[in-house]
Amino acid sequence: MTKQTFKLHSNGNFASYLKRFSSVEKSLLLEVKDGKFVAKTHTPDKAVVKISATDLSEIFDVTTSTNVKIGLFAVDNFIKTFNHLGDTEVKFDIVSEKVGDEEVATEIKIYNKNLKFSFPGASPSLFKYIDSALAQKIADTTSAIYSFRIDKDTLTKISSLCSIDTDNDTLKIVANKSVTISGKSFDLELDGVNVENKHSISFYKSHYNFVDKEDSEIFVLENKVIFKSLESNTFIVVGRVD
Q1: How far is CA 81 from the centre of its chain?
Q2: What digits encode the pLDDT tens for the residues 92-101?
Q3: Is the fold of 2-138 the same as that of 146-239?
Q4: Domain 146-239 architecture
Q5: CB-based burial label for 75 (10 Å; 0-12, 13-18, 19+)
């Protein structure tokens, strides 16, 4: 058995990182790998894939770590612990054991001086694992037809506009010199975006809800749209709908 103990210096960063995934899937296979948290998840129909990594040092006072896979069945419940632990000194324990060639978490604890929460570590075999090679392939932008940058305020505005079209379930990105985001009742032309290609692609509004509202670069491919955050190491891949 191996036990790693980390002291949190940013409860908010840890909660924010996990929240990236809780909207997509209620369970999560989280990895401590090469000094980073790495997580990859997808909707049950695999139409949306989210991949994100963050340095452990962004969350913990840490100098070294052992690579380990952590299976969490109730990400939302884990996030709720931060509401009770407050800003006092918080520690995070990973208890793990060797399973084959991998180190696998058997228990996860998060606690302060007065309050302790404990969660069982689920077996990684219960999760659909996206390995590094497949993740790199999914998030590969080299075949993009075109790309453009968009700020967080515009992404939020698009969400608000979507609420107008209650009887329509898709969004469309249309490129024809300029780039327009269209619903059934609205067309939003993006300022300062110019492309040479003429192209359009549609995807579900419900899938757009999984996109983090951060300054981003959007890559449009033939069969998917990739949102690459410029504020974090996060990719959201949304499949095309015809």
Answers
A1: 20
A2: 999 999 998 8
A3: yes
A4: Roll (3.10)
A5: buried
